[in-house]
Amino acid sequence: MLLAGRSMVRMLKLEKVSKNYRTGTFGGKLLPAVVDVSFNIGDGEVVSLIGESGSGKSTIGKMILRLLNINSGKITLDDIDISTLKGAKLKNYYRDVQGVFQDPFSSYNPIFKADRIFTIIRQEFFPDVKDSEWREKVDNALRAVGLNPDQVLNKFPHQLSGGQLQRFLIARALLLDIKLLIADEIISMLDASTRVDVLNLLVELKSRGLSILFITHDLSLGYYISERAIILYRGCIVEMGATEKIYFNPVHPYTQMLMSSVPRLDKKWERVEMELKAKQTELTGGCVYYERCKSPYKCEKCALERPRLREFEPEHFVACHFIE
């Protein structure tokens, strides 16, 4: 069985991680994309990172995957700072951590058959494996994600559906016997029935011990799949904790607004995002949600001092002055 006998990951940990982008004609202006973000993911745990477009959630995923450098803070896997990894050690890191992204078609070269991604993995990580053993590994990986090898191998990307291509990418990750999967909006471009299939696949992989960072802007998906949820706003964590507590007892005004704006759990909130973006203001030293906040507890302190995450109740943290 895939993942059986895999070494246990103690913890992926982010400690005060920040990322700035340079904007403007000459790059003279800094845009804070992620601000002092701290959280961890334990072995076999699914954590949902939830936020509107532009909140910094994909940036966090890319920093974990070493696709972007961080400006400050630290990311560690099993207490090893991933920014220090080079050569063989970085290659071993990618044996443990892999990502699957939103648009499955962008991950394939249309002039090559889709299963070329498995060939690349073999050349890079398993050069000494015999042909028969490799075919068995690929078949097992495909069956583990619900695909029939006879029906999907030797096909070009345009001959497969988006759902099948996403499963190919997950199967590629499983070939490496990974510890952590960064799933960045991986079902947002799939139809409803395929979404459920891919979600259930992730739940099955979680039951076998795979850790998952599930990045989404769809509230219902985060509730469906994760034990813990993190609400991100303009690069800052405003609330995080056990998923049940976040969804049924939202404390931060932003989280409350999100929940009240989605009367149906199967409905996205693109309209809400558009309304929020229309009110977007420059990031100040105070609360990142100050300009939009309609809480009766909003005060001058909110404008001047950024609240830190505080424990509101066991397994429930909120960055808001009013909980004091």
Please tell me about this protein's structure:
- With 324 residues, this protein is of the alpha/beta class.
- The protein is built from 12 helices and 12 strands.
- It has helices at residues 57-64, 87-96, 116-125, 131-144, 149-152, 162-175, 192-207, 219-225, 243-248, 253-260, 270-278, 300-304, and strands spanning 12-23, 29-41, 46-50, 72-77, 80-81, 97-100, 180-184, 211-216, 228-233, 236-242, 310-313, 316-318.
- The strands form 2 sheets. Strands 6-7-8-3-9-10-12-11 form an 8-stranded mixed sheet, with helices on both faces.
- Helix 4 (131-144) packs across helix 6.
- The longest helix is centred in the middle third of the chain and has 16 residues, at 192-207.
Secondary structure blueprint with pairings:
Layout: E1 12-23, E2 29-41, E3 46-50, H1 57-64, E4 72-77, E5 80-81, H2 87-96, E6 97-100, H3 116-125, H4 131-144, H5 149-152, H6 162-175, E7 180-184, H7 192-207, E8 211-216, H8 219-225, E9 228-233, E10 236-242, H9 243-248, H10 253-260, H11 270-278, H12 300-304, E11 310-313, E12 316-318
Parallel strand pairs: 3-8, 3-9, 6-7, 7-8
Antiparallel strand pairs: 1-2, 1-4, 4-5, 9-10, 10-12, 11-12
Helix pairs in contact: 4-6
